[in-house]
Design a protein that fits this description.
Metallo-beta-lactamase, Chain A; Arc Repressor Mutant, subunit A; 14 strands; 7-stranded mixed sheet; 8 helices; 2 domains; about 290 residues
């Protein structure tokens, strides 16, 4: 796959990579331009004037029928209002940034568990899409799939048997799951469902297209199972809090990435707690010491 920011991936599909590389976004956020004479834009990207100009150049004056957002993180959704003003297209998504949280995650949020990394709190789609919603475009029919896990309101989009997978399945890294926005139990269910959907190809929010979707999904699930096993093994030595577990399990990871790793550890601990496999001490879960039940 070319490293150029702009690439044609197949007839009727262009990828424009936003200029926002980082340890959390890899080479940058992928914006997709779908269609020929009439277009849909998937994940307009960060609120960056240069990226807006580049997108409008690719659009080239062609009508844009819809702006589709996989999830309300700033690197995916923040450019939507400016692009909508420039093209007149409606913005479509699951809902506001906190929409779709499970009862468990709402309870955690009410208790003060904060994730919120990069939430686009201003995101307000013109059209809300539920699971199975058909986006009827003249040349680019797409079907919304509600697949939470990375975020409660995360959508993927089926297009001619390929799936735009957002940050549920990425082409460069495992998936960040940060409660209360990320939910590990939901992530597993969504991965199982996406695998059963049997897409011919995945077009992720970050990284290159994934030509073997089943293998990639299996790897993600195996990675999570291995991390859970590591956490349970560490807790056999005695109670530990998320920070202590992170230092033990991610010793080779640069310290700058430990905050994100700690969120993943917390996601595992909450999942284990909901399954009655670990018990926290009193107080804030993010600082609690966990023991095996």
């Amino acid at each position: 796959m070319t490293d150029a920011p702009l690439a044609e991936l197949e007839p009727g599909l262009m990828r424009l990579r936003a200029p926002n590389p980082s340890p959390m976004t890899g080479p940058g956020t992928n914006s997709y331009v779908v269609g020929h004479a009439r277009l849909a834009i998937i994940d307009p990207g960060p609120d960056d004037p240069a990226h807006l100009r580049a997108l409008l150049s690719v659009i080239g004056g062609r009508p844009v029928e819809a702006i589709l957002v996989t999830h309300a993180h700033l690197d995916h959704s923040a450019l939507a209002p400016a692009l909508a003003r420039a093209t007149g297209a409606p913005v479509c998504g699951y809902g506001p940034a906190t929409a779709g949280r499970s009862a468990v995650m709402r309870r955690l949020a009410d208790a003060g568990i904060g994730g919120g990394e990069g939430l686009d709190d201003a995101f307000a789609p013109d059209m809300r899409l539920g699971d199975g919603a058909r986006v009827t475009l003249s040349q680019t029919p797409l079907t919304a799939l509600h697949l939470p896990g990375h975020m409660a309101g995360h959508l993927c989009f089926d297009w001619c048997g390929a799936v735009f997978s957002g940050d549920l399945v990425m082409g460069w890294s495992s998936t960040l799951i940060s409660p209360p926005d990320g939910d590990l139990a939901a992530f597993r269910r969504s991965c199982d469902r996406l695998r059963a959907h049997a897409p011919r190809r995945l077009y992720p929010g970050h990284g290159d297209p994934i030509d073997a979707p089943g293998e990639r999904i299996d790897w993600l699930l195996a990675h999570r199972a291995a991390r859970e096993a590591q956490i349970r093994a560490a807790l056999r030595d005695g109670p530990l809090n998320p920070a202590e577990l992170t230092r033990r399990l991610y010793a080779e990871l640069p310290a700058t990435l430990h905050p994100a790793a700690r969120r993943n550890v917390l996601a595992h601990l909450i999942d284990l707690m909901e399954r009655n496999l670990v018990t926290p001490s009193d107080g804030d879960l993010d600082g609690a010491r966990f023991t095996l039940t």
